[in-house]
Amino acid sequence: MKGHLILLDHVGETQAACRLVDGKLDDLLIDTSNAPRPGAIFRGICDRPIKGQGGMMLRLPGGETGFLRQGRGLRPGQPILVQVTGYAEGGKAIPVTDRILFKSRYAIVTPGRPGTNVSRQITDDDTRDMLLAIAHAAFDGPHGLILRSSCDGADPDEIAEDIAAMADLAEAVLRDAEGVEPEMLTEGDGPHTLAWRDWHRTAQVVTDAGCFEDHGVLDQIGDLANALVPLNAANMYVEATRALIAVDVNTGNDTSPAAALKANLAACRALPRALRLRGFGGQITVDFVSMSKAHRKQVEQSLRAAFKADAVETSLVGWTPMGLFELQRKRERKPLSQDFLRGI
């Protein structure tokens, strides 16, 4: 099927959402963990500072532990509002931040950072003025407000309702900031809500039970158990280790003089999708096909362009002395487990 298609379904008992582009799986959101979701907001209790790092360990509900990187000036026993920023590796504390955001489809409320701003992606002056007028009419408070790019072309009443809902949620959560015990104040958005919130592109949405199977999505998810990512004549392997994500690129059956550069550029274009679908994050090391140093800049530019359109924050670190390329990717998603993939 040509075009964009969003499917909201379940895999077994697990809520899931996917986006297909011309029938090919392009993005996948699955609730695969019992851990707190990114975006969940807690009242945490400061436990102990981490000397030398300026961080603070926090007590969270259910015996969980959080780690706040910038914890200077806090004292043990002090309550603090924090928001989960990603999934923790096995045995490690949950990463959190004290920079709370209340994010929805059209609006982001930013406590402690006043001011009203419109996404830079909206460039039409009349549209920006109209959105600012909606914001000033619907939002009256000490917090900041950001109007997202999805506001462009949206219904003004829906934008106003979204702003009011986020402002009310912010006020309700901030009223619960004080307390002597840790508490979850919001649970974070699940896959269906995230799809509605973040997948703005015009697409047909299907919510029928069993739509994953009807559109061949389960087979495509099952294929993610294989580390191999075909690149026409070349191929790429994407595998998780305890320390990092290892990516290996080779030319396959292509023996032409330009095979190395072609394979490497194809890998650059395919890598964001391969990482996104598998939920991989953290340190990523890419072993490209050996090439001249003159071609490295071209490969790096291709990588930068590919990750610019990706939703997950990824930093291009650069080349190592051994000719490997390193990236650092935010752990926003839980990696798909082999047990889960085998059960599909």
Model description:
It is a single chain. 27% of the residues lie in helices and 31% in strands. It is an alpha+beta fold. The strands form 4 sheets. Strands 15-16-17-18-20-19 form a 6-stranded mixed sheet. A hairpin with a 2-residue loop joins strand 15 (228-231) and strand 16. Helix 1 (125-138) crosses helix 2 (156-175) and helix 6 runs parallel beside helix 7. The model has no long low-confidence stretch (mean pLDDT 92).
Q: Calculate the mean pLDDT score and round it.
A: 92
The biggest sheet, with number of strands, parallel, antiparallel or mixed sense and barrel status, is: 6 strands, mixed
Tell me the series of helices and strands, N- to C-terminal.
EEEEEEEEEEEHEHEHEHHEEEHEHEEH
Strand order of the largest sheet: 15-16-17-18-20-19
Low-confidence stretches are none
Give the strand tally.
Answer: 20
Q: Helix share of residues?
A: 25-40%
Measured between the Cα atoms of the first and last residue, the distance is: 23 Å
Helix-strand category? alpha+beta
Proportion of beta-strand residues: 25-35%
Figure out the total of helices: 8
**Shape annotation:** globular
Radius of gyration: 22 Å
Summarize the structure.
The chain is an alpha+beta fold and 344 residues long.
Question: Which tags fit this structure?
Answer:
alpha+beta, six-stranded mixed β-sheet, five-stranded mixed β-barrel, 344 residues, globular
Describe the SSE topology.
Layout: E1 4-11, E2 14-21, E3 24-30, E4 41-50, E5 55-59, E6 65-68, E7 79-84, E8 94-97, E9 102-103, E10 107-110, E11 115-118, H1 125-138, E12 144-147, H2 156-175, E13 183-186, H3 191-198, E14 204-206, H4 211-214, H5 217-222, E15 228-231, E16 234-240, E17 245-250, H6 259-278, E18 282-287, H7 293-308, E19 314-319, E20 325-329, H8 338-342
Parallel strand pairs: 1-14, 6-8, 11-12, 17-18
Antiparallel strand pairs: 1-2, 2-3, 4-5, 4-7, 4-13, 5-6, 7-8, 9-10, 10-12, 15-16, 16-17, 18-20, 19-20
Helix pairs in contact: 1-2, 6-7
